[in-house]
Design brief:
The protein is of the alpha/beta class. It is built from 14 helices and 12 strands. It has helices at about 5-20, 45-55, 70, 75-90, 100-110, 125-135, 145-160, 180-190, 245-255, 255-260, 265-280, 285-300, 320-335, 365-375, and strands spanning about 30-35, 90-95, 115-120, 135-140, 165-170, 195-200, 225-230, 240-245, 315-320, 335, 340, 350-355.
Length: about 375
């Protein structure tokens, strides 16, 4: 295919996305923050600025200079991993540059040929990409339905499956704001001698003792692997895979996203370690956050398209893509940073406003948003 024809084809695909109100573009942050995952308001805080200055005063390098297996390993990485393992209650931890890279590493590396990965239908895109790179068979299970996981493993065994079963879920789902039934899923895993992978991305820092997440009670089990991202409530960047030591050692030896990536900045590792300590010592931050969540839920209750119990992610289901984006744009013009979420990020026909409650907004901001939303959301 000639080069011009190739780019013309891409342009046609972009035009098709635009006609369907699904064209993505980068937009600057503007207005009151109802879009970010900075749940505790740490990302721009003076506390993390202080941690950064402390790391600089200690002489920590801004860059690592190479992969962890070459010259990129630094005591700051190892200090973070030791503290994270102790805090989250596991034998070991591995620091990765992003949550996407961490999920890709887990699913591409740990399940083996002949194994089966049963994943929740709404699991993160990064898990899907990791599974595509892996060698195990994969099957989706109905969202938050432990019996569906149980039935899938039973059916696989009945058809001759002899490998290891893996169960992959998020503890708190990023677009619906609902929690996984982790206790029931752990029982399914125990019955089938399966390994349970729990992505704590949106629960880390927000739930659990000291912000340890929703899987806190399960984290020390030998068949449980947890992932804690550092770019949401912890306010930094990167991700921590927490698991038995043998699983971490296997990742160090076999996970291509780890082996062939430049190591994260030692300065960032220092900041993450400080953030974990700050979050652990501030239950008042979580109390403050959930006072705002309760306010938002009470005001938005008639509009919520899903029914999250008490989480900081509140989806307002609109349904039609173009209308969703019109409403989001109208709210943005009124000073509220609200983003419309469309397929394929969410299922067809469930385009929505994903309202994220953080400590970056006040109760007054929440009330003003709800008033504006009521004015804007006239019948289609």
């Amino acid at each position: 295919m000639p080069i011009n024809a190739f780019f013309e084809e891409q342009a046609a695909q972009l035009d098709s996305l635009k006609r369907g109100s699904r064209l993505r573009s980068l937009a600057p942050r503007s207005g009151k923050d109802f879009a970010s995952n900075d749940y505790l308001g740490l990302a721009g805080s003076t506390l993390l600025h202080d941690a950064l200055r402390e790391g600089m005063a200690l002489g920590l390098p801004a860059g690592s200079g190479g992969s962890r297996l070459l010259r990129g390993n630094h005591p700051a990485h190892e200090a973070l991993e030791a503290e994270a393992a102790a805090h989250y209650g596991t034998e070991a931890a591995l620091f990765m540059a992003t949550g996407f890279a961490a999920n890709a590493a887990i699913f591409a590396t740990l399940p083996q040929r002949g194994d089966l990965v049963i994943y929740d239908a709404l699991i993160h895109a990064s898990a899907h990409d990791g599974m595509k790179l892996g060698r195990a068979e994969t099957r989706a299970a109905a969202h938050n339905d432990p019996q569906a996981f149980d039935d899938a493993i039973t059916a696989w065994r009945a058809c001759g499956g002899t490998g290891r079963a893996w169960i992959a879920v998020e503890s708190l789902y990023s677009m619906d704001g609902d929690r996984a039934p982790l206790g029931d899923l752990a029982q399914v895993a125990a019955r089938h001698e399966a390994i349970l992978i729990i992505d704590e991305a949106h629960a880390t820092g927000v739930f659990g003792t000291g912000g340890r997440g929703l899987a806190e009670a399960l984290a020390d089990q030998p068949n449980v692997i947890t992932l804690h991202t550092c770019g949401k409530a912890l306010g930094c960047e990167g991700a921590l895979i927490c698991a038995p030591r043998v699983a971490i050692d296997f990742l160090v030896n076999r996970a291509r996203p780890f082996i062939f990536s430049t190591a994260p900045s030692p300065l960032v590792a220092h900041m993450v370690r400080k953030a974990i300590g700050l979050v652990a010592s501030h239950d008042d931050w979580r109390e403050d956050l959930f006072a705002r969540v309760a306010e938002a839920r009470s005001l938005l209750a008639p509009r919520l398209g899903a029914a999250p119990a008490d989480t900081q992610i509140l989806p307002v289901i609109i349904g039609e893509d173009a209308r969703t984006m019109r409403i989001a744009s109208a709210l943005q013009r009124q000073g509220f940073d609200i983003r419309g979420i469309r397929p394929p990020t969410v299922p067809q026909g469930t385009a929505r406003l994903r309202i994220s409650i953080t400590r970056n907004v006040t109760k007054g901001d929440i009330g003003a948003l709800c008033e504006s939303l009521d004015r804007i959301m006239i019948p289609a």
